[in-house]
Amino acid sequence: MVKVVVLATGGTIAGVGASGTQPGYSSGEMSIEDMIAAVPNIENLAHIQGEQIANVGSQDMSFAIMIRLACRINELLQSEDVSGVVITHGTDTMEETAYFLNLTVKSTKPVVMTGSMRPSTAISADGPLNLYNAVGVAADPDTAKRGVLVVVNDRIHGAHALTKTNTTSVETFLSPINGLVGTVIYGSATYFRAPFRKHTYTSEFSVDGATRFKRVDIFHACADMPADLIDCSISQGARGIVIAGHGNGNMNKACLAAAKSAAAKHIVIVRSSSVASGTVGRNVEVDDDAGQFIVSDELNPVKARILLMLALLKDRSLEEIQELYFTY
Ligand code: ASP
Q: CA-CA to 96 of 20 to 30 Å: which in 37, 175, 176, 195?
Protein backbone atom coordinates (compact mmCIF):
# COMPACT_ATOMS: atom_id res chain seq x y z
CA MET A 1 0.00 0.00 0.00
CA VAL A 2 1.28 3.50 -0.85
CA LYS A 3 2.22 5.98 1.84
CA VAL A 4 0.66 9.47 1.96
CA VAL A 5 1.83 12.07 4.48
CA VAL A 6 -0.83 14.53 5.70
CA LEU A 7 0.63 17.89 6.74
CA ALA A 8 -1.78 19.94 8.83
CA THR A 9 -1.75 23.74 9.00
CA GLY A 10 -5.13 24.48 10.64
CA GLY A 11 -8.23 26.11 9.13
CA THR A 12 -11.92 25.38 9.54
CA ILE A 13 -11.28 21.71 8.79
CA ALA A 14 -9.56 21.70 12.20
CA GLY A 15 -12.14 24.10 13.64
CA VAL A 16 -14.35 23.53 16.66
CA GLY A 17 -17.63 25.22 17.66
CA ALA A 18 -19.76 24.91 20.78
CA SER A 19 -22.62 23.16 18.95
CA GLY A 20 -23.46 21.61 15.58
CA THR A 21 -25.84 24.36 14.54
CA GLN A 22 -24.15 27.63 15.40
CA PRO A 23 -22.14 29.62 12.86
CA GLY A 24 -19.40 30.64 15.33
CA TYR A 25 -16.28 28.51 15.79
CA SER A 26 -12.49 28.75 16.15
CA SER A 27 -10.20 27.62 13.31
CA GLY A 28 -7.15 25.44 13.91
CA GLU A 29 -8.19 23.71 17.14
CA MET A 30 -7.99 19.98 16.31
CA SER A 31 -4.78 18.00 16.05
CA ILE A 32 -3.85 16.12 12.89
CA GLU A 33 -4.21 12.81 14.75
CA ASP A 34 -7.84 13.61 15.66
CA MET A 35 -8.62 14.80 12.13
CA ILE A 36 -7.35 11.55 10.61
CA ALA A 37 -9.17 9.47 13.25
CA ALA A 38 -12.45 11.21 12.27
CA VAL A 39 -12.32 9.86 8.68
CA PRO A 40 -13.82 6.38 8.35
CA ASN A 41 -11.87 3.87 6.21
CA ILE A 42 -9.12 6.33 5.26
CA GLU A 43 -6.61 3.56 6.07
CA ASN A 44 -8.00 1.60 3.09
CA LEU A 45 -6.70 4.26 0.67
CA ALA A 46 -3.11 4.55 1.86
CA HIS A 47 -0.79 4.15 4.77
CA ILE A 48 -1.26 7.56 6.44
CA GLN A 49 1.31 9.50 8.43
CA GLY A 50 0.21 12.80 10.01
CA GLU A 51 2.38 15.79 10.82
CA GLN A 52 1.44 19.15 12.34
CA ILE A 53 3.19 22.03 10.55
CA ALA A 54 1.07 24.80 12.09
CA ASN A 55 -2.44 25.23 13.49
CA VAL A 56 -3.76 28.61 12.36
CA GLY A 57 -6.79 30.07 10.67
CA SER A 58 -5.46 30.65 7.17
CA GLN A 59 -6.04 34.40 7.54
CA ASP A 60 -2.87 34.07 9.67
CA MET A 61 -0.94 32.07 7.08
CA SER A 62 2.50 33.62 6.66
CA PHE A 63 5.36 33.28 4.21
CA ALA A 64 7.42 31.78 7.05
CA ILE A 65 4.92 28.90 7.32
CA MET A 66 4.67 28.58 3.52
CA ILE A 67 8.46 28.28 3.23
CA ARG A 68 8.52 25.68 6.02
CA LEU A 69 5.79 23.76 4.23
CA ALA A 70 7.54 23.86 0.85
CA CYS A 71 10.84 22.69 2.39
CA ARG A 72 9.14 19.84 4.27
CA ILE A 73 7.21 18.70 1.19
CA ASN A 74 10.41 18.71 -0.88
CA GLU A 75 12.15 16.69 1.80
CA LEU A 76 9.31 14.15 2.15
CA LEU A 77 8.83 13.63 -1.58
CA GLN A 78 12.51 12.79 -2.03
CA SER A 79 11.90 9.74 0.09
CA GLU A 80 11.14 6.66 -2.02
CA ASP A 81 8.53 5.35 0.39
CA VAL A 82 6.37 8.53 0.24
CA SER A 83 3.99 8.50 -2.74
CA GLY A 84 2.26 11.80 -2.14
CA VAL A 85 1.46 14.60 0.28
CA VAL A 86 -1.85 16.08 1.45
CA ILE A 87 -1.96 19.49 3.12
CA THR A 88 -4.93 20.53 5.26
CA HIS A 89 -5.38 24.31 5.17
CA GLY A 90 -7.96 27.01 5.75
CA THR A 91 -9.94 28.00 2.69
CA ASP A 92 -9.42 31.78 3.06
CA THR A 93 -5.87 31.80 1.69
CA MET A 94 -5.82 28.30 0.20
CA GLU A 95 -5.30 29.68 -3.30
CA GLU A 96 -2.25 31.69 -2.20
CA THR A 97 -0.48 28.77 -0.54
CA ALA A 98 -1.49 26.43 -3.38
CA TYR A 99 0.03 28.77 -5.96
CA PHE A 100 3.14 29.36 -3.84
CA LEU A 101 3.71 25.59 -3.52
CA ASN A 102 2.93 25.11 -7.21
CA LEU A 103 6.00 27.24 -7.96
CA THR A 104 8.34 25.99 -5.21
CA VAL A 105 7.75 22.24 -4.75
CA LYS A 106 10.28 20.26 -6.79
CA SER A 107 8.66 16.92 -7.49
CA THR A 108 6.44 15.10 -9.95
CA LYS A 109 4.64 13.33 -7.08
CA PRO A 110 1.09 14.28 -6.03
CA VAL A 111 0.67 17.33 -3.78
CA VAL A 112 -2.97 17.82 -2.81
CA MET A 113 -4.48 20.50 -0.58
CA THR A 114 -7.82 20.33 1.15
CA GLY A 115 -9.90 22.17 3.71
CA SER A 116 -13.52 22.62 4.65
CA MET A 117 -16.15 25.29 4.97
CA ARG A 118 -17.80 23.83 8.06
CA PRO A 119 -15.98 23.13 11.32
CA SER A 120 -15.53 19.58 12.55
CA THR A 121 -18.39 20.00 15.06
CA ALA A 122 -21.01 21.14 12.50
CA ILE A 123 -23.97 19.12 11.25
CA SER A 124 -22.82 17.66 7.91
CA ALA A 125 -19.23 18.75 8.43
CA ASP A 126 -17.52 18.61 5.02
CA GLY A 127 -13.96 18.09 6.33
CA PRO A 128 -13.86 14.29 6.68
CA LEU A 129 -15.02 13.57 3.11
CA ASN A 130 -12.75 16.29 1.72
CA LEU A 131 -9.79 14.72 3.54
CA TYR A 132 -10.79 11.24 2.38
CA ASN A 133 -11.00 12.49 -1.22
CA ALA A 134 -7.68 14.36 -0.97
CA VAL A 135 -5.91 11.20 0.25
CA GLY A 136 -7.54 9.19 -2.57
CA VAL A 137 -6.29 11.73 -5.12
CA ALA A 138 -2.79 11.84 -3.57
CA ALA A 139 -2.56 8.02 -3.61
CA ASP A 140 -3.53 7.84 -7.30
CA PRO A 141 -0.46 7.49 -9.60
CA ASP A 142 -2.41 9.36 -12.30
CA THR A 143 -2.15 12.51 -10.14
CA ALA A 144 1.62 12.73 -10.81
CA LYS A 145 2.91 15.71 -12.83
CA ARG A 146 -0.30 17.75 -12.42
CA GLY A 147 1.22 20.30 -10.04
CA VAL A 148 -0.40 21.30 -6.77
CA LEU A 149 -4.11 20.42 -6.71
CA VAL A 150 -6.92 21.50 -4.40
CA VAL A 151 -9.63 18.96 -3.61
CA VAL A 152 -12.80 20.36 -2.02
CA ASN A 153 -16.46 19.39 -2.46
CA ASP A 154 -15.74 16.54 -4.93
CA ARG A 155 -13.87 18.88 -7.31
CA ILE A 156 -10.19 18.86 -8.28
CA HIS A 157 -8.77 22.31 -9.05
CA GLY A 158 -5.34 23.36 -10.32
CA ALA A 159 -3.41 25.85 -8.16
CA HIS A 160 -3.06 28.38 -10.99
CA ALA A 161 -6.79 28.55 -11.66
CA LEU A 162 -8.76 28.19 -8.44
CA THR A 163 -10.25 30.96 -6.38
CA LYS A 164 -12.57 31.16 -3.37
CA THR A 165 -15.93 32.62 -4.41
CA ASN A 166 -18.34 32.16 -1.51
CA THR A 167 -17.94 33.12 2.15
CA THR A 168 -19.90 30.17 3.60
CA SER A 169 -21.00 27.62 0.98
CA VAL A 170 -19.29 24.23 0.63
CA GLU A 171 -19.27 24.95 -3.12
CA THR A 172 -16.87 27.86 -2.75
CA PHE A 173 -13.93 27.09 -5.04
CA LEU A 174 -14.21 27.71 -8.76
CA SER A 175 -11.64 27.76 -11.53
CA PRO A 176 -13.23 30.52 -13.58
CA ILE A 177 -10.82 30.94 -16.49
CA ASN A 178 -9.59 27.40 -17.14
CA GLY A 179 -12.11 25.14 -15.47
CA LEU A 180 -11.68 22.02 -13.38
CA VAL A 181 -8.82 19.56 -13.62
CA GLY A 182 -11.12 16.72 -12.55
CA THR A 183 -13.64 15.37 -10.08
CA VAL A 184 -13.40 12.89 -7.22
CA ILE A 185 -16.11 10.63 -5.83
CA TYR A 186 -15.39 8.80 -2.56
CA GLY A 187 -11.65 8.88 -3.13
CA SER A 188 -11.69 7.90 -6.79
CA ALA A 189 -10.50 10.60 -9.22
CA THR A 190 -11.49 11.28 -12.83
CA TYR A 191 -9.21 13.69 -14.68
CA PHE A 192 -10.28 15.93 -17.57
CA ARG A 193 -6.90 17.51 -18.22
CA ALA A 194 -3.54 18.63 -16.77
CA PRO A 195 -2.90 22.26 -15.76
CA PHE A 196 -1.46 24.17 -18.75
CA ARG A 197 1.12 26.43 -17.10
CA LYS A 198 4.59 25.49 -15.82
CA HIS A 199 4.71 24.30 -12.23
CA THR A 200 6.55 22.23 -9.59
CA TYR A 201 9.19 20.09 -11.32
CA THR A 202 9.43 22.51 -14.31
CA SER A 203 9.43 25.69 -12.18
CA GLU A 204 12.59 27.82 -11.99
CA PHE A 205 11.67 29.15 -8.52
CA SER A 206 13.11 27.84 -5.31
CA VAL A 207 12.78 28.74 -1.65
CA ASP A 208 16.08 27.09 -0.73
CA GLY A 209 17.80 29.62 1.50
CA ALA A 210 14.96 32.17 1.15
CA THR A 211 13.92 33.61 4.48
CA ARG A 212 12.13 36.79 3.51
CA PHE A 213 10.67 38.43 0.47
CA LYS A 214 10.66 42.00 -0.79
CA ARG A 215 7.46 43.80 0.08
CA VAL A 216 4.71 43.78 -2.55
CA ASP A 217 1.39 45.52 -1.80
CA ILE A 218 -2.03 45.19 -3.42
CA PHE A 219 -4.47 48.05 -4.06
CA HIS A 220 -8.11 47.41 -4.80
CA ALA A 221 -9.35 50.00 -7.30
CA CYS A 222 -12.54 51.89 -6.49
CA ALA A 223 -14.28 55.05 -7.66
CA ASP A 224 -12.12 58.08 -6.92
CA MET A 225 -9.30 55.94 -5.54
CA PRO A 226 -6.69 58.22 -3.94
CA ALA A 227 -3.35 58.06 -5.73
CA ASP A 228 -1.34 58.79 -2.59
CA LEU A 229 -1.86 55.15 -1.48
CA ILE A 230 0.76 54.24 -4.09
CA ASP A 231 3.24 56.82 -2.73
CA CYS A 232 2.53 55.65 0.83
CA SER A 233 3.24 52.07 -0.11
CA ILE A 234 6.58 53.00 -1.66
CA SER A 235 7.54 55.08 1.37
CA GLN A 236 6.90 51.96 3.51
CA GLY A 237 9.42 49.99 1.43
CA ALA A 238 7.32 48.26 -1.24
CA ARG A 239 9.36 47.09 -4.24
CA GLY A 240 6.29 46.02 -6.15
CA ILE A 241 2.62 46.99 -6.31
CA VAL A 242 -0.24 44.94 -7.69
CA ILE A 243 -3.28 46.94 -8.75
CA ALA A 244 -6.50 44.95 -8.38
CA GLY A 245 -7.91 47.14 -11.09
CA HIS A 246 -11.36 47.74 -12.49
CA GLY A 247 -12.29 45.46 -15.39
CA ASN A 248 -9.27 44.83 -17.60
CA GLY A 249 -6.88 46.12 -14.92
CA ASN A 250 -7.92 49.78 -15.17
CA MET A 251 -7.40 52.59 -12.66
CA ASN A 252 -8.25 56.29 -12.63
CA LYS A 253 -6.01 58.93 -14.20
CA ALA A 254 -4.49 60.04 -10.88
CA CYS A 255 -3.50 56.47 -9.97
CA LEU A 256 -2.21 55.86 -13.47
CA ALA A 257 0.08 58.88 -13.15
CA ALA A 258 1.26 57.74 -9.68
CA ALA A 259 1.85 54.21 -10.98
CA LYS A 260 3.82 55.59 -13.93
CA SER A 261 6.08 57.66 -11.71
CA ALA A 262 6.54 54.65 -9.37
CA ALA A 263 7.58 52.48 -12.34
CA ALA A 264 10.07 55.16 -13.37
CA LYS A 265 11.60 54.71 -9.88
CA HIS A 266 11.96 50.94 -10.55
CA ILE A 267 8.97 49.88 -8.48
CA VAL A 268 7.38 46.99 -10.37
CA ILE A 269 3.73 47.74 -11.14
CA VAL A 270 1.52 44.78 -12.04
CA ARG A 271 -1.97 45.36 -13.36
CA SER A 272 -4.39 42.62 -12.28
CA SER A 273 -8.16 42.77 -11.85
CA SER A 274 -10.74 42.79 -9.08
CA VAL A 275 -13.18 41.13 -11.47
CA ALA A 276 -13.86 37.45 -10.74
CA SER A 277 -12.90 36.09 -14.15
CA GLY A 278 -10.97 36.96 -17.29
CA THR A 279 -7.44 37.94 -18.27
CA VAL A 280 -5.69 41.31 -18.06
CA GLY A 281 -4.07 42.07 -21.40
CA ARG A 282 -1.26 44.42 -22.39
CA ASN A 283 -1.99 47.81 -23.96
CA VAL A 284 -5.79 47.52 -24.01
CA GLU A 285 -7.05 50.73 -22.32
CA VAL A 286 -3.72 51.40 -20.61
CA ASP A 287 -0.47 52.01 -22.48
CA ASP A 288 1.69 49.46 -20.63
CA ASP A 289 4.69 50.06 -22.87
CA ALA A 290 4.76 53.78 -22.05
CA GLY A 291 4.01 53.21 -18.35
CA GLN A 292 6.48 50.30 -18.00
CA PHE A 293 3.72 48.21 -16.46
CA ILE A 294 3.38 44.44 -16.22
CA VAL A 295 0.04 42.68 -16.78
CA SER A 296 -1.00 39.68 -14.68
CA ASP A 297 -2.61 37.79 -17.58
CA GLU A 298 -4.68 35.05 -15.84
CA LEU A 299 -3.52 35.64 -12.28
CA ASN A 300 -5.80 37.29 -9.75
CA PRO A 301 -4.22 39.94 -7.47
CA VAL A 302 -3.15 37.64 -4.61
CA LYS A 303 -1.45 35.18 -6.97
CA ALA A 304 0.05 38.00 -9.05
CA ARG A 305 1.62 39.23 -5.79
CA ILE A 306 3.12 35.82 -5.00
CA LEU A 307 4.62 35.47 -8.46
CA LEU A 308 6.16 38.94 -8.17
CA MET A 309 7.60 38.20 -4.71
CA LEU A 310 9.27 35.06 -6.06
CA ALA A 311 10.41 36.91 -9.19
CA LEU A 312 12.04 39.63 -7.04
CA LEU A 313 14.25 37.05 -5.31
CA LYS A 314 16.73 37.77 -8.10
CA ASP A 315 17.43 40.60 -10.55
CA ARG A 316 15.17 40.38 -13.57
CA SER A 317 14.30 42.85 -16.33
CA LEU A 318 10.70 43.99 -16.79
CA GLU A 319 10.52 41.92 -19.99
CA GLU A 320 11.60 38.83 -18.06
CA ILE A 321 9.07 39.51 -15.31
CA GLN A 322 6.30 39.98 -17.87
CA GLU A 323 7.21 36.66 -19.48
CA LEU A 324 6.84 34.93 -16.10
CA TYR A 325 3.15 35.97 -16.06
CA PHE A 326 2.62 34.25 -19.41
CA THR A 327 4.53 31.14 -18.28
CA TYR A 328 3.34 30.43 -14.74
N1 ASP B 1 -11.03 31.36 8.20
C2 ASP B 1 -10.93 29.97 7.88
C3 ASP B 1 -9.51 29.71 7.40
O4 ASP B 1 -9.19 30.09 6.32
C5 ASP B 1 -11.94 29.59 6.86
C6 ASP B 1 -11.86 28.17 6.36
O7 ASP B 1 -10.94 27.43 6.59
O8 ASP B 1 -12.81 27.75 5.64
O9 ASP B 1 -8.74 29.16 8.14
A: 37
